[in-house]
Every structure is written in C-alpha cells, then in structure tokens.
C-alpha cells in the first residue's frame, strides 16, 4: 500500500512539474506561477472542463492539431477549445427582432440603443489633430502567403483597447463609447473603430483564438455593398445593427460602395460557454504573455514584425482623410 501511495504521489509530482514547465511560456513571476498552479489544481472541477481539455492538449503537444470534430472553416485558428459551441454567426442585428436576444447577448440591446451617440462621438474624431486612425497592420496578415490584410482598398483603425498598449488618449476622446463598453460583461480587452474604405475587400483569415466572440456595430454604413462572410454564412451589414460572430472561423468582408466608407465599432467578448473561473484564469495567462512580449520587444529595441512593433509603427502613419471617411470626410459632424 505504501508503495502504491508513493507511486501515485510520484505521478502527481511529475504532472505538476510538467504543468509548471508549460507555464514558463507565459513569463510569470514566482508569485504568478503559484497563482496559476492553484488554478490548475482545480482543473478536474466541472466549471474548468474546457480549460482542462485545452491544457492537457498543450501538455501532450497536440494543441496545434485541431480536434477531430473541428469544423473545416475553423481549422485555420491556432488556438481551439473543445466543449465550446462552434457557431459561426451568433447574432444578425439587421435580420432579427429585439425580443429574440439570447440571454448571454442581452447587452447587445444597450450597444445598439447607444449607436447614434457613439456615431456623433466618432464623427468628432475627424477634426482632432494628434489622435488619428492608423493603417491596420498585424504580423499574421502581413506574412500569410505574402498577402496583406486587403487585396484592394484600405483598412484603417482607431484603437481604444489592445493588449496592454497605451491608448488612453484615444479613450479620453470617446467617453460615450468607452462607457458602453464598460457596461458589457466579460469584455476581452480589445476594442477599436474600424474603417473599411469604399471598394475594399478584407481577405479571408481566421482569428487567433476560439475563446472569444467578436461584435461589429456599423456606425457609418452604405445602404448597399457591405457584407461579411463567416464560415459559409454571408451577413449583410446595416447601420446601427450589430453582428456577433466567432472570428476563429474563416471570414472575410467587403465594402463595394463606390464612395462611402463603412466605419464600425468592433470589440470582443469572452466566449459565453466559458465559466467565470475559466475566464479569470485564461485572462491571467493572456495578460502575462502579452506583458512579457512587450518587455522583450522594448528591451531588445525590436523593429521587425513583432506584434507590438508593427502596431507601434502603424501609429506613426496618418492616412488621408478620404481613405478613412470616404464621403463623410467633407460632412460636418452629425451630418452623416
């Protein structure tokens, strides 16, 4: 009996050493690693089931291989989670009625209700000097198959939140929008205004993880020509009507209008199937990993294609107003 107990303790010790080793990738401090290990010891509990399956796949070295039941259009996503609903489109605001909101998306009503006020705030950005839109850039879109994020047209963004980067000056100019975002439960810490110029096609791509959903709220939008494909579904875009989708599925978007830009508020929320403890743990790991990446980039003076350097280089570029605002560039605030 003593020998069996010793063997069981030895196996547990080996597992815990492997768990601790896997945490090294996140650059955690000694205290941070202790906190993470405390969470990992709770993995057998029901409300940690999705994280348990994901973490075991990491330990087995199979986390980069999609699970066998992964939909074909989702297989290009590098971080997949078993046990989460794999549903390409969750909400089509221009097609459904207010009474049909799923309970986990009840916050959408507040977002759409505040769209006119957020549009006025967005339009005031046109006349602001130092704080401006920047070209969308990301190492993944720049490197994939030699293609950029678009194969025609222009895509520019105005960040409000992005992985521990300093966009406080942007948020100060958008108090209404930031107030709306603060009321949404379990936001993911990624929010921005996205301008898709006229005659623009954003090429097909998969998001980096399946642990979140993405919301598009068009605030300026042509009556025709704007649509998005998620998986095999195509959804028409309309002003003040939110679209919520799982961007881990392959997706692409178009603005085929001849002169008008489409500008949307885009933000992410944690996948509603994740428990509160899973969100807390995954958020903890993600924050640690991004802080580490930022420290490494700053310490090395990196100027290549890292996440932080690419975003920082983009901040120094101010696109022409017509490429951001289209026909709205010549309109007075509140006209559009």
Automatic annotation (TrEMBL):
Gene Ontology molecular-function annotations = peptidyl-aspartic acid 3-dioxygenase activity
UniProt GO cellular component terms = endoplasmic reticulum
User: Which InterPro entries does the UniProt record give?
Assistant: Asp/Arg/Pro-Hydrxlase (IPR007803), ASPH (IPR039038), IPNS-like_sf (IPR027443)
Residue ranges occupied by any Aspartyl/asparaginy/proline hydroxylase domain in the UniProt entry: 112-272
**Which Pfam families does this UniProt record tie to the protein?**
Asp_Arg_Hydrox (PF05118)
SUPFAM superfamilies per the UniProt record, alphabetical: Clavaminate synthase-like
Record Gene3D superfamilies:
B-lactam Antibiotic, Isopenicillin N Synthase, Chain
Give the record's family classification.
Belongs to the aspartyl/asparaginyl beta-hydroxylase family.
Report the protein name in the record.
Answer: Aspartyl/asparaginy/proline hydroxylase domain-containing protein
